[in-house]
Design goal:
mainly beta, eight-stranded antiparallel sheet, single chain, nine-stranded antiparallel sheet
């Protein structure tokens, strides 16, 4: 960081809390890390660390005048001054293939008051330096026209023509000392003028600048040290002596002030959070700020416009060429002891991890892994390692604080199929900036348990909190526990709506070599959000594919354990505009990944989750419907199809077995081009002319296709919908065997319908209900013919159960049957349905 011109006075911040979070407890495990030594214990204190896609980690050792890279355990360093002429002090850099562009703000082997802009070819060792008649550059921008722009700490911004060597100085009446620069998509330079607490916008070569003064410099200088854009166009600024992180919205002039930091020197943005390195002269720390949840103060700034003087410098840049021979050695790596990485909640609510060396400087976050430079060490850290490989995982849940009649809660249903008690805890990893919220459980042999509102009230702000749920067993057979997680939004009329998903073992995620399709929403009234969670770390490639099979973008992914991220809308992950009907192809190359698409209905606020659909040539949707209900409600089912094979088309046959019918099915033929997808709205009416009606759909194809069924109740305020995956032949209730679902509510508000389809010999299905203590509370038999679809409304009542919220429903199929079974949990006031396959 540049030297500060003066010390600021005491800054007192009055923060308005955005959310009041509960008192935080100690984590179950301590974050893990690895350190790498540098030669001569050089301090890794350049402006940034840059992790490249190939895994190489680039950084600076300014005191040793070295540019360095770590590849595996091999460290290579280029020393731009020999040991007898140290003092060039490289401060910032940019990786451009084999070429490293850099600035040096020292005066070794150059004239006083001058500085260096440099180019190092790491393949050949050829280095060229342009000696600039300006002091202490704070950053640089290589413009498309070949000029380089250098904001300096000595009261000017300079442009350098690398061909003609002409230097031009730009300065307004308020320019004092620049400390960093960020470049907007339109090419404008945004700079922190830390000498007077300004943020300056300047279009290269313009006659005027626009600036925002964040804090009266007569009351104290905040000493801004870094500035960076986020994906939404906001500017984030670290204020070193101001002990705060600011977010400036250039469009409105609003500044959000996040306080409680300890000399925040640099930061990195990842997953919507701000990872801040702190250098306060003692142990270095990494503080994680979650802007959605942390408290902040606000102010609104009116920008001012100033004339900018332009003066051609009488001195030209001077070129120096040399060849540098790098040194390569094996860096000693060591695991960082758990005791040396304490985690605590700091002032302002940020979660802070301490490292065992003096100060933390440059920082980069890639795939959730934090790289940070310190005294003699380059370190990588995983800030959230809670959990184990035996945990069950639900990739996303949503919680919204508020009054009981409108809150969004997370319910966890558990089942213990063994004769040994199982105890444990459900962990809600809603943010790396907070300790996980917890709900404990103890489920008796054969019993079920419902953790209603498992994580309590996480705050007072009515903003959605999204994150994965890990369910860990602390005693008992961990590999036998069964769980399901439901996100539920309450209504004043007693109803609720949301989405449900199974909690699966790590091995049941998308593993190495697997692929699947994620369907997105195609309606103008929907917002689709692409997300993922990895409980163990993963590498994958996401591909955005248009309905006609055109690839619109790809996103490679490499993440460590416990990392989740969301992109809204889906297309933003690929850098393109959202279009209806897109699908996302996911291919996993290593690890275990749980990807999803959250589809939020704008009118009702209801959420549906699109889980990975695997391609198959034979898929059954046990019940699709088209009907008109009471209170201006209609029910519709849309069929979603995708051909993941980009090399060949596929012939698709859709068969419809009307409810109760014993005759031959109706059929419809479709063709999907290579890579193409299609949404068939109101599939029963569109393909078969059935309205109203319901029954089973079977999807057959000569090339395996991915499919999903959107089931929605439509009301004047919008839809309440779910997306259901089909059952393939491996998912049936085995002949002479049984399967179960947990939950199966029967209350005045919620009911469970039983949906069945038999592709085998005619037989008998027995439905048996159990309460939470594993006691049978009712049973009934149903005759089902060959290739017949049946529906049993309010099945718990049909078997003799008046009310149950914490039960288990078992179906038994007689010999010869090939039984496909769904439980449909229906909310009365909204008609919102959750489809639960039997297992």
């Amino acid at each position: 960081m540049p030297k500060t011109p003066r010390i600021s006075g005491l800054l007192v911040l009055s923060l308005l809390a955005a959310a009041t979070l509960p008192a935080q407890t100690e984590p179950t495990t301590i974050p893990a890390g690895t350190s790498y030594t540098t030669d001569k214990s050089g301090i890794v204190n350049g402006v940034r660390i840059d992790v490249q896609p190939d895994g190489s980690v680039w950084f600076l050792l300014p005191a040793l005048d070295r540019i360095a890279v770590l590849r595996g355990d091999q460290m290579t360093q280029w020393q731009i001054r020999d040991d007898t002429h140290l003092g060039a002090n490289p401060a910032d850099f940019e990786v451009d293939g084999d070429v490293i562009w850099f600035i040096a703000n020292g005066e070794s082997q150059i004239d006083a008051g001058h500085s260096i802009f440099g180019r190092l070819d790491t393949a050949t060792g050829q280095e060229r330096e342009w000696e600039i008649p300006g002091s202490r550059p704070a950053g640089f921008y290589r413009a498309p026209d070949g000029k380089v722009w250098l904001p300096q700490t000595d009261r000017r911004l300079q442009s350098v023509d690398l061909s003609t060597l002409e230097v031009v100085d730009y300065r307004s009446s308020k320019t004092i000392a620049y400390s960093d620069v960020a470049v907007a998509p339109d090419g404008a330079l945004w700079m922190t003028d830390f000498g007077n607490n300004r943020v300056v916008r300047f279009e290269p070569g313009a006659a005027q600048e626009t600036s925002w003064t964040i804090f009266d410099p007569l009351s104290g200088v905040l000493n801004s040290s870094q500035i960076e854009f986020d994906s939404e166009g906001h500017l984030w600024i670290s204020e070193f002596t101001g002990a705060r992180i600011d977010r400036l919205d250039p469009a409105s002039g609003e500044v959000r002030i996040f306080g409680g930091f300890l000399n925040p020197v640099h930061f990195a943005l990842f997953g919507g959070r701000v990872y801040v390195s702190e250098a306060n002269g003692s142990k270095g720390q990494i503080a994680v700020l979650d802007p959605q949840l942390a408290g902040y103060g606000t102010q609104t700034i009116t920008p001012e416009t100033l004339d900018v003087g332009r003066l051609v410098n009488r001195l030209h840049a001077v070129v120096h060429d040399r060849t540098i021979t790098p040194t390569t050695f094996t860096s000693t790596s060591a695991a960082i002891a758990e005791a040396d990485l304490p985690v605590a909640v700091g002032t302002g609510g940020v979660l802070r991890t301490q490292i065992p060396w003096t100060n933390a400087y440059g920082i980069d976050v890639v795939g959730g892994e934090v790289w940070v430079g310190s005294s003699g060490q380059l370190a990588k850290l995983a800030l959230q390692t809670i959990g184990s490989a035996a945990d069950l995982v639900a990739p996303v849940a949503t919680q919204i604080a508020g009054p009981a009649e409108s809150e969004g809660r997370v319910d966890v249903m558990l089942y213990n199929p063994t004769d040994t008690p199982i105890a444990g805890e459900a962990l809600y990893l809603f943010s790396p900036g907070y300790f996980a919220a917890r709900g404990t459980f103890n489920v008796g042999p054969g019993g079920t348990a419902l953790l209603s509102d498992a994580f309590g009230d996480l705050g007072s702000a009515t903003i959605p909190i999204n994150g994965p749920v890990r369910i860990r067993v602390t005693s008992g057979p961990a590999d036998q526990l069964v769980a399901r997680v439901r996100t539920a939004r309450a209504r004043a009329d007693g109803g609720s709506f949301g989405y449900a998903e199974p909690a699966l073992a790590t091995s049941q995620g998308l593993g190495s070599g697997s692929s699947a399709t994620l369907f997105t929403g195609g309606r103008g009234s929907e917002t689709s959000v692409l997300g993922y969670f990895s409980p163990s770390g993963a590498e994958a490639v996401f591909t955005l594919v248009a309905p006609d099979g055109t690839v619109r973008g790809t996103m490679p992914l490499s993440v460590i354990a416990n990392i989740g991220q969301e992109f809204q809308p889906v297309a933003s992950a690929f850098g393109v505009a959202a279009e209806p009907g897109d699908v996302v192809s996911v291919q996993v190359t290593s690890g275990s990944l749980f990807p999803y698409v959250r589809i939020v209905e704008d009118g009702t606020g209801d959420g549906a989750v699109s889980l990975p659909a695997r391609a198959t040539g034979d898929a059954v949707f046990v019940n699709a419907g088209s009907a008109v209900g009471l209170f201006d409600t209609t029910f519709r089912s849309d069929l979603l199809l995708s051909n993941p094979d980009a090399s060949q088309s596929t012939a698709v046959t859709v068969l419809f077995y009307p409810l109760g019918s014993k005759g031959a099915p109706q059929t419809a033929a479709l063709t999907l081009d290579p890579g193409a997808s299609q949404v068939i709205p109101d599939v029963l009416g569109t393909l078969f002319g059935v309205d109203p009606g319901q029954g089973t759909l079977q999807v057959l194809s000569d090339v395996p296709v991915a499919s999903s069924l959107r089931i929605a109740s439509s009301k004047p305020e919008g839809d309440f919908a779910t997306l259901a995956l089909p059952i393939d032949p491996d998912g049936i209730v085995r002949p002479g065997g049984s399967a179960f679902v947990i939950g199966a509510p029967q209350t005045p508000i919620r009911r469970t319908n039983l949906l069945l389809f038999n592709r085998g010999a005619a037989g008998t299905v027995t439905a048996i209900a159990y309460n939470g203590n594993n006691s049978e509370i009712g049973r009934r038999q149903f005759a089902v013919d060959d290739h017949q679809a049946i529906r049993v409304d309010s099945v718990m009542a049909a078997v003799g159960v008046d009310e149950e919220t914490n039960g288990r429903l078992v179906v038994e199929a007689s010999d010869g049957m090939l039984l496909y079974a769904w439980a449909a949990e229906v909310d009365g006031p909204t008609g919102d349905v959750e489809i639960i396959p039997f297992r």
